[in-house]
Amino acid sequence: GAEVVFSVDCTKLKDYFLPGKREFDCIYFNFPHCGRKSGVVKNRELLAHFFHSSVEVLTEEGEVHVALCNGQGGTPADQPRREWHNSWQIVAVAAGAGFILSNVHPFKAETIPGYKCTGYRSQDKSFCVEGALNHIFTRSTPLPCFKPMICEIELEKGKVSFEVPQVLVDKMNRGFLELSSNHPVRTVKDKLTAELSQAFPLQNIDHCLSLFHQGHINGVCHSNIFWIILSPEETPSTEEVSNGLANAVLFSHVDFCRDTDKNRWVNVQEGCHISNQYYLTPSLLPYAQAIIERGAFVPGTLHVLSGPVFRKCLITPYSMPVFHEMVFVCAVSRGTESSCMQMLVNSIKTSIHSLHQTLSSFKLNISLQEATSFEATELNDFAAFESQLGKIQYFIYMEIETSGSCEKGSCVGVIRTARYELVSSELAVVFASLNLDLVAMLICGISDWRMLWTSDARFLRQFPRGELRLFKNFSLYPPSYVHDVSFWVPDGEQFDEVAFHTIARQVSGETVVCIRLIDSFQQSESGRKSLCYRLTFQCCDKALSCREVAEMQLLFRKEITQRLPVTLR
Protein backbone atom coordinates (compact mmCIF):
# COMPACT_ATOMS: atom_id res chain seq x y z
CA GLY A 1 0.00 0.00 0.00
CA ALA A 2 2.99 2.31 -0.23
CA GLU A 3 3.04 5.21 -2.68
CA VAL A 4 6.24 5.85 -4.62
CA VAL A 5 6.97 9.35 -5.92
CA PHE A 6 9.85 10.03 -8.30
CA SER A 7 11.83 13.20 -9.12
CA VAL A 8 11.22 14.79 -5.71
CA ASP A 9 13.21 17.94 -4.92
CA CYS A 10 14.42 17.38 -1.35
CA THR A 11 14.58 21.14 -0.76
CA LYS A 12 10.85 21.60 -1.56
CA LEU A 13 9.19 18.53 -0.03
CA LYS A 14 5.83 20.12 0.71
CA ASP A 15 5.31 20.85 -3.01
CA TYR A 16 5.10 17.11 -3.77
CA PHE A 17 2.53 16.05 -1.20
CA LEU A 18 -1.04 17.08 -0.55
CA PRO A 19 -1.70 18.80 2.82
CA GLY A 20 -3.25 15.64 4.25
CA LYS A 21 -0.16 13.58 3.38
CA ARG A 22 2.57 15.88 4.72
CA GLU A 23 2.76 14.41 8.23
CA PHE A 24 5.72 12.03 7.96
CA ASP A 25 7.00 10.10 10.98
CA CYS A 26 10.39 9.52 9.38
CA ILE A 27 12.32 11.07 6.51
CA TYR A 28 15.40 9.29 5.16
CA PHE A 29 18.10 10.91 3.04
CA ASN A 30 20.91 8.45 2.32
CA PHE A 31 24.21 9.91 1.16
CA PRO A 32 23.10 13.30 -0.10
CA HIS A 33 25.39 14.96 -2.63
CA CYS A 34 25.14 17.82 -5.09
CA GLY A 35 26.87 15.73 -7.75
CA ARG A 36 30.36 15.57 -9.20
CA LYS A 37 33.09 17.56 -7.41
CA SER A 38 30.78 20.02 -5.68
CA GLY A 39 32.81 20.59 -2.49
CA VAL A 40 31.77 20.79 1.15
CA VAL A 41 30.20 24.27 0.99
CA LYS A 42 27.63 23.36 -1.66
CA ASN A 43 26.79 20.13 0.15
CA ARG A 44 26.25 22.05 3.39
CA GLU A 45 23.86 24.31 1.50
CA LEU A 46 22.02 21.26 0.17
CA LEU A 47 21.62 19.88 3.68
CA ALA A 48 20.49 23.26 5.03
CA HIS A 49 17.72 23.52 2.41
CA PHE A 50 16.74 19.88 3.02
CA PHE A 51 16.39 20.35 6.78
CA HIS A 52 14.30 23.49 6.36
CA SER A 53 12.13 21.61 3.88
CA SER A 54 11.76 18.67 6.30
CA VAL A 55 10.38 20.93 9.04
CA GLU A 56 7.29 21.55 6.90
CA VAL A 57 6.36 17.87 6.42
CA LEU A 58 7.52 16.16 9.66
CA THR A 59 5.35 15.29 12.65
CA GLU A 60 6.23 16.83 16.01
CA GLU A 61 7.75 13.56 17.24
CA GLY A 62 9.17 12.62 13.83
CA GLU A 63 12.78 11.80 12.91
CA VAL A 64 15.06 12.77 10.06
CA HIS A 65 17.70 10.18 9.15
CA VAL A 66 20.72 11.30 7.14
CA ALA A 67 23.43 8.81 6.16
CA LEU A 68 26.87 10.20 5.36
CA CYS A 69 30.16 8.65 4.33
CA ASN A 70 32.87 8.30 6.94
CA GLY A 71 34.22 11.69 8.00
CA GLN A 72 31.67 13.85 6.20
CA GLY A 73 29.52 14.67 9.24
CA GLY A 74 32.28 16.33 11.23
CA THR A 75 31.21 14.87 14.59
CA PRO A 76 33.30 12.92 17.13
CA ALA A 77 31.43 9.81 15.97
CA ASP A 78 33.46 9.93 12.74
CA GLN A 79 36.67 7.91 12.96
CA PRO A 80 38.94 9.34 11.80
CA ARG A 81 37.43 12.77 12.27
CA ARG A 82 37.96 15.45 9.65
CA GLU A 83 38.89 19.01 10.52
CA TRP A 84 35.74 21.04 11.17
CA HIS A 85 36.20 23.39 8.20
CA ASN A 86 36.59 20.41 5.84
CA SER A 87 33.41 18.61 6.97
CA TRP A 88 29.75 19.03 6.17
CA GLN A 89 29.13 20.31 9.70
CA ILE A 90 25.85 18.44 9.77
CA VAL A 91 24.87 19.19 13.38
CA ALA A 92 25.36 22.94 12.98
CA VAL A 93 23.54 22.92 9.64
CA ALA A 94 20.60 21.02 11.14
CA ALA A 95 20.49 23.42 14.09
CA GLY A 96 19.70 26.22 11.68
CA ALA A 97 16.36 24.49 10.99
CA GLY A 98 15.66 23.66 14.63
CA PHE A 99 16.93 20.06 14.74
CA ILE A 100 19.20 18.36 17.26
CA LEU A 101 21.22 15.18 16.74
CA SER A 102 19.60 12.61 19.02
CA ASN A 103 21.35 9.44 17.86
CA VAL A 104 24.09 8.27 15.53
CA HIS A 105 25.00 4.70 14.58
CA PRO A 106 26.79 2.81 11.78
CA PHE A 107 24.95 2.66 8.46
CA LYS A 108 24.33 -0.97 7.49
CA ALA A 109 23.09 -1.35 3.92
CA GLU A 110 22.53 -5.08 4.36
CA THR A 111 19.73 -4.46 6.85
CA ILE A 112 17.67 -2.56 4.25
CA PRO A 113 15.94 -5.01 1.85
CA GLY A 114 16.60 -4.14 -1.77
CA TYR A 115 18.93 -1.25 -0.99
CA LYS A 116 21.86 -0.76 -3.36
CA CYS A 117 24.61 1.84 -3.11
CA THR A 118 24.97 3.52 -6.51
CA GLY A 119 25.78 6.91 -7.92
CA TYR A 120 29.53 7.23 -7.40
CA ARG A 121 30.45 10.49 -9.15
CA SER A 122 27.06 10.42 -10.91
CA GLN A 123 27.87 7.06 -12.42
CA ASP A 124 25.98 3.76 -12.19
CA LYS A 125 28.60 2.53 -9.82
CA SER A 126 28.64 1.81 -6.09
CA PHE A 127 30.72 3.80 -3.65
CA CYS A 128 32.36 2.84 -0.39
CA VAL A 129 30.06 2.89 2.64
CA GLU A 130 32.57 1.42 5.07
CA GLY A 131 32.47 3.49 8.24
CA ALA A 132 29.37 5.37 7.06
CA LEU A 133 27.08 6.75 9.77
CA ASN A 134 23.34 7.25 10.05
CA HIS A 135 22.52 10.52 11.84
CA ILE A 136 19.09 10.72 13.49
CA PHE A 137 17.69 14.19 14.08
CA THR A 138 14.64 15.26 16.08
CA ARG A 139 12.92 18.57 16.62
CA SER A 140 14.34 20.82 19.28
CA THR A 141 12.25 22.85 21.67
CA PRO A 142 12.63 26.48 20.56
CA LEU A 143 15.04 28.85 22.24
CA PRO A 144 13.10 30.80 24.87
CA CYS A 145 12.00 34.30 24.04
CA PHE A 146 11.57 35.81 27.47
CA LYS A 147 8.96 38.50 27.90
CA PRO A 148 8.79 40.81 30.91
CA MET A 149 7.09 38.97 33.76
CA ILE A 150 5.52 40.54 36.82
CA CYS A 151 5.11 38.58 40.04
CA GLU A 152 2.57 39.53 42.67
CA ILE A 153 2.39 38.14 46.19
CA GLU A 154 -0.01 38.57 49.05
CA LEU A 155 1.28 39.73 52.44
CA GLU A 156 -0.61 40.41 55.66
CA LYS A 157 -0.60 44.14 54.94
CA GLY A 158 -1.19 44.07 51.20
CA LYS A 159 0.36 43.00 47.91
CA VAL A 160 3.88 43.33 46.57
CA SER A 161 4.63 43.20 42.85
CA PHE A 162 7.96 43.08 41.07
CA GLU A 163 9.49 42.24 37.72
CA VAL A 164 11.12 38.85 37.25
CA PRO A 165 14.63 39.18 35.78
CA GLN A 166 15.26 37.54 32.44
CA VAL A 167 18.05 35.36 33.82
CA LEU A 168 15.58 33.68 36.20
CA VAL A 169 12.29 33.65 34.27
CA ASP A 170 12.58 30.06 33.02
CA LYS A 171 13.39 28.87 36.55
CA MET A 172 10.34 30.37 38.18
CA ASN A 173 7.80 28.16 39.93
CA ARG A 174 9.18 24.92 38.50
CA GLY A 175 8.09 22.89 41.53
CA PHE A 176 11.04 20.47 41.58
CA LEU A 177 10.50 19.74 45.29
CA GLU A 178 6.71 19.44 45.23
CA LEU A 179 5.05 16.17 46.26
CA SER A 180 3.87 15.47 42.70
CA SER A 181 7.34 15.99 41.19
CA ASN A 182 9.40 13.11 39.75
CA HIS A 183 12.44 15.33 39.20
CA PRO A 184 15.79 13.77 40.25
CA VAL A 185 16.33 16.59 42.76
CA ARG A 186 13.09 15.63 44.53
CA THR A 187 14.07 11.94 44.53
CA VAL A 188 17.42 12.73 46.16
CA LYS A 189 15.73 14.88 48.81
CA ASP A 190 13.17 12.17 49.64
CA LYS A 191 15.82 9.48 49.96
CA LEU A 192 17.99 11.63 52.20
CA THR A 193 15.03 12.48 54.42
CA ALA A 194 13.96 8.83 54.72
CA GLU A 195 17.46 7.65 55.60
CA LEU A 196 18.09 10.42 58.13
CA SER A 197 14.76 9.70 59.83
CA GLN A 198 16.15 6.27 60.71
CA ALA A 199 19.03 7.84 62.62
CA PHE A 200 17.42 10.98 64.10
CA PRO A 201 14.03 12.26 65.24
CA LEU A 202 13.28 14.49 62.25
CA GLN A 203 11.21 17.61 61.64
CA ASN A 204 10.64 19.24 58.22
CA ILE A 205 10.12 23.01 58.34
CA ASP A 206 10.10 23.98 54.65
CA HIS A 207 6.66 25.59 54.76
CA CYS A 208 7.70 28.86 56.45
CA LEU A 209 10.70 29.83 54.31
CA SER A 210 10.73 33.21 52.61
CA LEU A 211 12.73 33.63 49.43
CA PHE A 212 14.04 37.10 50.24
CA HIS A 213 15.87 38.82 53.07
CA GLN A 214 16.41 42.37 54.18
CA GLY A 215 19.70 44.09 54.97
CA HIS A 216 22.97 42.31 54.36
CA ILE A 217 24.90 39.13 55.09
CA ASN A 218 28.15 39.68 56.92
CA GLY A 219 31.24 38.54 55.06
CA VAL A 220 29.52 37.84 51.72
CA CYS A 221 30.78 39.51 48.55
CA HIS A 222 27.87 41.65 47.43
CA SER A 223 28.47 41.05 43.75
CA ASN A 224 27.32 37.46 44.42
CA ILE A 225 23.90 38.63 45.66
CA PHE A 226 20.74 39.08 43.60
CA TRP A 227 19.43 42.38 44.95
CA ILE A 228 15.72 43.01 44.55
CA ILE A 229 13.56 46.12 44.54
CA LEU A 230 10.05 45.84 45.93
CA SER A 231 7.39 48.44 45.26
CA PRO A 232 8.24 51.24 47.78
CA GLU A 233 4.64 51.88 48.81
CA GLU A 234 4.05 48.17 49.43
CA THR A 235 7.35 47.12 50.99
CA PRO A 236 6.77 44.52 53.75
CA SER A 237 7.86 45.22 57.28
CA THR A 238 11.05 43.75 58.70
CA GLU A 239 8.90 41.65 61.04
CA GLU A 240 6.98 40.09 58.13
CA VAL A 241 10.21 39.15 56.36
CA SER A 242 11.93 37.73 59.45
CA ASN A 243 8.86 35.69 60.38
CA GLY A 244 8.68 34.17 56.93
CA LEU A 245 5.26 35.69 56.16
CA ALA A 246 6.39 36.54 52.64
CA ASN A 247 6.91 32.90 51.76
CA ALA A 248 5.10 33.27 48.44
CA VAL A 249 7.87 35.42 46.98
CA LEU A 250 9.60 33.54 44.19
CA PHE A 251 11.82 35.98 42.34
CA SER A 252 12.29 39.68 41.99
CA HIS A 253 14.00 42.33 39.92
CA VAL A 254 17.78 42.11 39.66
CA ASP A 255 19.50 45.47 39.58
CA PHE A 256 22.77 45.41 37.65
CA CYS A 257 24.32 48.28 39.58
CA ARG A 258 27.49 50.02 38.52
CA ASP A 259 28.22 51.71 41.83
CA THR A 260 30.16 49.76 44.41
CA ASP A 261 32.33 51.09 47.17
CA LYS A 262 35.66 49.67 48.28
CA ASN A 263 33.96 47.05 50.44
CA ARG A 264 31.88 45.90 47.47
CA TRP A 265 28.61 47.10 49.00
CA VAL A 266 26.11 47.78 46.26
CA ASN A 267 24.24 51.08 46.25
CA VAL A 268 20.97 49.79 44.84
CA GLN A 269 19.16 53.11 44.90
CA GLU A 270 20.61 56.55 45.41
CA GLY A 271 19.83 57.82 48.88
CA CYS A 272 18.95 54.39 50.31
CA HIS A 273 20.89 52.53 52.96
CA ILE A 274 21.85 48.93 52.30
CA SER A 275 19.93 47.80 55.40
CA ASN A 276 16.69 48.87 53.74
CA GLN A 277 17.30 46.74 50.67
CA TYR A 278 16.12 43.23 49.88
CA TYR A 279 17.79 40.33 48.15
CA LEU A 280 16.91 36.84 47.01
CA THR A 281 17.86 34.17 49.53
CA PRO A 282 21.43 33.00 48.80
CA SER A 283 21.42 30.42 51.62
CA LEU A 284 19.03 28.65 53.98
CA LEU A 285 21.60 28.84 56.78
CA PRO A 286 20.09 32.03 58.33
CA TYR A 287 16.78 30.17 58.77
CA ALA A 288 18.58 27.31 60.51
CA GLN A 289 20.40 29.76 62.76
CA ALA A 290 17.11 31.50 63.57
CA ILE A 291 15.65 28.21 64.81
CA ILE A 292 18.42 27.97 67.38
CA GLU A 293 18.38 31.65 68.36
CA ARG A 294 14.62 31.54 69.00
CA GLY A 295 15.00 28.36 71.02
CA ALA A 296 12.48 26.65 68.72
CA PHE A 297 14.17 23.29 68.82
CA VAL A 298 14.31 20.02 70.70
CA PRO A 299 17.86 18.79 71.51
CA GLY A 300 18.72 15.73 69.44
CA THR A 301 16.02 16.44 66.84
CA LEU A 302 17.22 16.99 63.26
CA HIS A 303 15.48 19.97 61.69
CA VAL A 304 15.44 19.84 57.88
CA LEU A 305 15.01 22.80 55.54
CA SER A 306 15.03 22.72 51.74
CA GLY A 307 14.31 25.14 48.94
CA PRO A 308 15.81 27.18 46.09
CA VAL A 309 18.65 29.63 46.72
CA PHE A 310 20.10 32.26 44.40
CA ARG A 311 23.73 33.22 43.89
CA LYS A 312 25.42 35.22 41.16
CA CYS A 313 28.45 33.27 40.02
CA LEU A 314 30.90 32.76 37.20
CA ILE A 315 29.92 30.55 34.27
CA THR A 316 31.10 26.93 34.57
CA PRO A 317 29.34 23.56 34.02
CA TYR A 318 28.85 23.11 37.79
CA SER A 319 28.19 26.73 38.84
CA MET A 320 24.49 27.45 39.29
CA PRO A 321 22.78 30.82 39.76
CA VAL A 322 19.81 28.88 41.19
CA PHE A 323 19.89 25.52 42.95
CA HIS A 324 18.05 23.60 45.64
CA GLU A 325 19.72 23.54 49.04
CA MET A 326 19.02 21.14 51.89
CA VAL A 327 20.10 22.22 55.36
CA PHE A 328 20.15 20.10 58.52
CA VAL A 329 20.45 21.55 62.01
CA CYS A 330 20.74 19.59 65.25
CA ALA A 331 21.47 20.76 68.79
CA VAL A 332 23.44 18.20 70.82
CA SER A 333 25.28 18.05 74.12
CA ARG A 334 28.73 19.58 74.07
CA GLY A 335 31.41 17.03 73.34
CA THR A 336 29.13 14.90 71.14
CA GLU A 337 29.40 17.07 68.00
CA SER A 338 31.80 14.66 66.30
CA SER A 339 29.52 11.66 66.73
CA CYS A 340 26.56 13.68 65.46
CA MET A 341 28.51 14.75 62.38
CA GLN A 342 29.57 11.17 61.72
CA MET A 343 25.96 9.94 62.00
CA LEU A 344 24.89 12.64 59.55
CA VAL A 345 27.58 11.76 57.02
CA ASN A 346 26.95 8.02 57.35
CA SER A 347 23.25 8.53 56.66
CA ILE A 348 24.03 10.74 53.66
CA LYS A 349 26.46 8.15 52.32
CA THR A 350 23.95 5.31 52.77
CA SER A 351 21.15 7.16 51.01
CA ILE A 352 23.30 8.26 48.07
CA HIS A 353 24.79 4.79 47.61
CA SER A 354 21.33 3.22 47.65
CA LEU A 355 20.19 5.66 44.97
CA HIS A 356 23.26 4.81 42.92
CA GLN A 357 22.91 1.02 43.13
CA THR A 358 21.08 0.74 39.80
CA LEU A 359 23.75 2.76 37.97
CA SER A 360 26.53 0.22 37.58
CA SER A 361 28.57 1.93 34.87
CA PHE A 362 30.59 3.98 37.36
CA LYS A 363 31.34 4.16 41.06
CA LEU A 364 30.71 7.04 43.46
CA ASN A 365 32.98 7.80 46.40
CA ILE A 366 31.80 10.07 49.22
CA SER A 367 34.28 11.45 51.70
CA LEU A 368 34.50 13.95 54.56
CA GLN A 369 37.51 16.25 54.22
CA GLU A 370 38.80 18.84 56.66
CA ALA A 371 38.26 22.39 55.45
CA THR A 372 41.72 23.46 56.62
CA SER A 373 43.32 21.20 54.01
CA PHE A 374 42.02 23.31 51.11
CA GLU A 375 43.20 26.60 49.66
CA ALA A 376 40.53 29.07 48.56
CA THR A 377 41.53 28.63 44.91
CA GLU A 378 40.82 24.88 45.13
CA LEU A 379 37.15 25.31 46.05
CA ASN A 380 34.27 25.21 43.59
CA ASP A 381 31.76 28.08 43.61
CA PHE A 382 29.42 26.33 46.03
CA ALA A 383 32.17 25.69 48.59
CA ALA A 384 33.70 29.15 48.14
CA PHE A 385 30.40 30.88 48.82
CA GLU A 386 29.70 28.67 51.84
CA SER A 387 33.10 29.68 53.22
CA GLN A 388 31.95 33.31 53.17
CA LEU A 389 28.98 32.47 55.41
CA GLY A 390 31.11 31.29 58.32
CA LYS A 391 33.76 28.86 59.49
CA ILE A 392 33.48 25.36 58.06
CA GLN A 393 34.82 22.22 59.72
CA TYR A 394 34.35 19.72 56.89
CA PHE A 395 33.56 19.54 53.19
CA ILE A 396 31.50 16.65 51.82
CA TYR A 397 33.09 15.50 48.57
CA MET A 398 31.77 13.19 45.86
CA GLU A 399 33.98 11.75 43.14
CA ILE A 400 33.30 9.47 40.18
CA GLU A 401 35.31 6.40 39.20
CA THR A 402 34.94 5.15 35.62
CA SER A 403 36.99 2.39 33.98
CA GLY A 404 39.74 2.58 36.58
CA SER A 405 40.15 6.37 36.40
CA CYS A 406 38.89 8.80 39.01
CA GLU A 407 37.63 12.29 38.16
CA LYS A 408 38.37 15.24 40.41
CA GLY A 409 35.86 15.34 43.26
CA SER A 410 33.20 18.01 43.68
CA CYS A 411 32.22 19.59 46.97
CA VAL A 412 28.48 18.95 47.38
CA GLY A 413 28.07 19.87 51.03
CA VAL A 414 29.59 21.45 54.13
CA ILE A 415 29.41 20.79 57.86
CA ARG A 416 29.94 23.43 60.52
CA THR A 417 29.42 23.67 64.27
CA ALA A 418 28.56 26.60 66.51
CA ARG A 419 27.81 27.41 70.13
CA TYR A 420 25.04 29.72 71.32
CA GLU A 421 25.87 30.69 74.88
CA LEU A 422 22.74 32.83 75.23
CA VAL A 423 20.56 29.85 74.35
CA SER A 424 22.36 27.15 76.34
CA SER A 425 25.84 26.73 77.74
CA GLU A 426 25.50 22.95 77.58
CA LEU A 427 24.59 22.57 73.92
CA ALA A 428 26.49 22.76 70.65
CA VAL A 429 24.83 22.96 67.24
CA VAL A 430 25.74 21.02 64.10
CA PHE A 431 24.78 22.51 60.73
CA ALA A 432 25.06 20.59 57.44
CA SER A 433 24.26 21.94 53.98
CA LEU A 434 23.88 19.99 50.72
CA ASN A 435 23.60 21.16 47.13
CA LEU A 436 20.84 18.79 45.95
CA ASP A 437 21.30 19.72 42.30
CA LEU A 438 24.99 18.79 42.33
CA VAL A 439 24.24 15.50 44.11
CA ALA A 440 21.59 14.61 41.51
CA MET A 441 23.95 15.49 38.66
CA LEU A 442 26.75 13.28 39.97
CA ILE A 443 24.47 10.33 40.71
CA CYS A 444 22.80 10.43 37.28
CA GLY A 445 25.88 11.34 35.24
CA ILE A 446 24.53 14.74 34.15
CA SER A 447 27.48 16.86 33.05
CA ASP A 448 25.76 20.24 32.72
CA TRP A 449 23.59 21.88 35.42
CA ARG A 450 21.40 23.50 32.74
CA MET A 451 19.97 20.11 31.84
CA LEU A 452 18.22 19.97 35.23
CA TRP A 453 16.18 23.00 34.17
CA THR A 454 15.37 21.96 30.61
CA SER A 455 11.78 22.27 29.41
CA ASP A 456 12.25 19.32 27.04
CA ALA A 457 9.99 16.45 28.14
CA ARG A 458 12.65 13.93 27.10
CA PHE A 459 14.56 14.73 30.27
CA LEU A 460 11.91 13.76 32.83
CA ARG A 461 10.83 10.76 30.75
CA GLN A 462 14.13 9.17 31.73
CA PHE A 463 13.12 9.24 35.41
CA PRO A 464 9.66 7.62 35.58
CA ARG A 465 8.01 7.67 39.02
CA GLY A 466 11.10 9.33 40.43
CA GLU A 467 13.38 6.41 39.60
CA LEU A 468 16.98 7.54 39.15
CA ARG A 469 18.78 6.29 36.06
CA LEU A 470 21.98 7.08 34.22
CA PHE A 471 21.07 10.07 32.07
CA LYS A 472 21.31 9.67 28.30
CA ASN A 473 21.79 12.85 26.32
CA PHE A 474 19.13 13.49 23.70
CA SER A 475 21.21 16.21 22.03
CA LEU A 476 24.54 14.81 20.87
CA TYR A 477 27.60 16.82 19.87
CA PRO A 478 25.88 20.23 20.03
CA PRO A 479 27.75 22.80 17.92
CA SER A 480 29.74 25.50 19.68
CA TYR A 481 30.49 29.01 18.47
CA VAL A 482 33.26 31.34 19.60
CA HIS A 483 33.13 35.15 19.74
CA ASP A 484 35.58 37.63 21.25
CA VAL A 485 34.87 40.97 22.89
CA SER A 486 37.48 43.63 23.78
CA PHE A 487 36.98 46.77 25.84
CA TRP A 488 38.70 49.41 27.92
CA VAL A 489 38.33 49.68 31.71
CA PRO A 490 39.10 53.19 33.09
CA ASP A 491 42.13 53.66 35.30
CA GLY A 492 41.29 52.91 38.95
CA GLU A 493 38.00 51.18 38.09
CA GLN A 494 37.58 47.64 39.44
CA PHE A 495 36.10 45.32 36.83
CA ASP A 496 33.24 43.20 38.19
CA GLU A 497 33.70 39.85 36.49
CA VAL A 498 30.67 38.27 38.19
CA ALA A 499 28.41 41.02 36.81
CA PHE A 500 30.03 40.49 33.38
CA HIS A 501 29.17 36.78 33.51
CA THR A 502 25.64 37.49 34.78
CA ILE A 503 24.93 39.76 31.80
CA ALA A 504 26.21 37.01 29.48
CA ARG A 505 23.81 34.55 31.13
CA GLN A 506 20.90 36.93 30.64
CA VAL A 507 21.38 37.97 27.02
CA SER A 508 22.25 34.44 25.85
CA GLY A 509 19.53 32.58 27.72
CA GLU A 510 22.24 30.52 29.49
CA THR A 511 23.83 29.42 26.20
CA VAL A 512 27.28 30.83 27.08
CA VAL A 513 29.23 27.89 28.52
CA CYS A 514 32.65 29.45 28.91
CA ILE A 515 34.15 32.92 29.29
CA ARG A 516 37.92 33.11 29.21
CA LEU A 517 40.30 36.06 29.45
CA ILE A 518 42.67 35.71 26.50
CA ASP A 519 44.50 39.05 26.54
CA SER A 520 45.05 42.11 28.73
CA PHE A 521 47.36 45.11 28.80
CA GLN A 522 47.50 48.55 30.39
CA GLN A 523 48.01 51.77 28.46
CA SER A 524 50.88 53.68 30.04
CA GLU A 525 49.64 57.15 28.98
CA SER A 526 46.05 56.96 30.24
CA GLY A 527 46.36 54.12 32.74
CA ARG A 528 43.27 52.45 31.35
CA LYS A 529 43.28 48.68 30.96
CA SER A 530 42.31 46.64 27.93
CA LEU A 531 40.64 43.25 28.42
CA CYS A 532 39.78 40.70 25.73
CA TYR A 533 37.43 37.83 26.60
CA ARG A 534 36.51 34.80 24.51
CA LEU A 535 32.92 33.60 24.82
CA THR A 536 31.90 30.07 23.84
CA PHE A 537 28.22 29.54 23.06
CA GLN A 538 26.72 26.06 23.22
CA CYS A 539 23.29 24.71 24.16
CA CYS A 540 22.97 21.33 25.86
CA ASP A 541 19.31 20.66 25.03
CA LYS A 542 18.23 22.92 22.16
CA ALA A 543 19.25 23.73 18.60
CA LEU A 544 21.50 26.79 18.45
CA SER A 545 22.43 28.33 15.10
CA CYS A 546 25.30 30.63 14.20
CA ARG A 547 22.81 33.36 13.26
CA GLU A 548 21.18 33.26 16.69
CA VAL A 549 24.57 33.40 18.39
CA ALA A 550 25.63 36.39 16.29
CA GLU A 551 22.52 38.26 17.45
CA MET A 552 23.27 37.36 21.08
CA GLN A 553 26.83 38.62 20.73
CA LEU A 554 25.68 41.97 19.37
CA LEU A 555 23.21 42.34 22.23
CA PHE A 556 25.89 41.38 24.75
CA ARG A 557 28.22 44.10 23.44
CA LYS A 558 25.44 46.63 23.80
CA GLU A 559 24.44 45.55 27.31
CA ILE A 560 27.91 45.58 28.86
CA THR A 561 28.47 49.18 27.75
CA GLN A 562 25.19 50.18 29.41
CA ARG A 563 25.61 48.22 32.64
CA LEU A 564 29.36 48.22 33.23
CA PRO A 565 31.93 51.05 33.19
CA VAL A 566 33.61 49.85 29.97
CA THR A 567 34.23 51.20 26.48
CA LEU A 568 34.26 48.81 23.54
CA ARG A 569 37.38 48.67 21.43
Automatic annotation (TrEMBL):
<dbReference type="GO" id="GO:0005759">
    <property type="term" value="C:mitochondrial matrix"/>
</dbReference>
<dbReference type="GO" id="GO:0005524">
    <property type="term" value="F:ATP binding"/>
</dbReference>
<dbReference type="GO" id="GO:0070042">
    <property type="term" value="F:rRNA (uridine-N3-)-methyltransferase activity"/>
</dbReference>
<keyword id="KW-0496">Mitochondrion</keyword>
<dbReference type="GO" id="GO:0070475">
    <property type="term" value="P:rRNA base methylation"/>
</dbReference>
<dbReference type="InterPro" id="IPR045864">
    <property type="entry name" value="aa-tRNA-synth_II/BPL/LPL"/>
</dbReference>
<dbReference type="Pfam" id="PF10354">
    <property type="entry name" value="BMT5-like"/>
</dbReference>
<feature type="domain" description="FDX-ACB">
    <location>
        <begin position="476"/>
        <end position="569"/>
    </location>
</feature>
<dbReference type="InterPro" id="IPR019446">
    <property type="entry name" value="BMT5-like"/>
</dbReference>
<keyword id="KW-0436">Ligase</keyword>
<keyword id="KW-0067">ATP-binding</keyword>
<keyword id="KW-0547">Nucleotide-binding</keyword>
<keyword id="KW-0809">Transit peptide</keyword>
<dbReference type="Pfam" id="PF03147">
    <property type="entry name" value="FDX-ACB"/>
</dbReference>
<dbReference type="GO" id="GO:0006412">
    <property type="term" value="P:translation"/>
</dbReference>
<keyword id="KW-0030">Aminoacyl-tRNA synthetase</keyword>
<dbReference type="InterPro" id="IPR036690">
    <property type="entry name" value="Fdx_antiC-bd_sf"/>
</dbReference>
<keyword id="KW-0648">Protein biosynthesis</keyword>
<protein>
    <recommendedName>
        <fullName>phenylalanine--tRNA ligase</fullName>
        <ecNumber>6.1.1.20</ecNumber>
    </recommendedName>
</protein>
<comment type="similarity">
    <text>Belongs to the class-II aminoacyl-tRNA synthetase family.</text>
</comment>
<dbReference type="InterPro" id="IPR005121">
    <property type="entry name" value="Fdx_antiC-bd"/>
</dbReference>
<dbReference type="GO" id="GO:0004826">
    <property type="term" value="F:phenylalanine-tRNA ligase activity"/>
</dbReference>
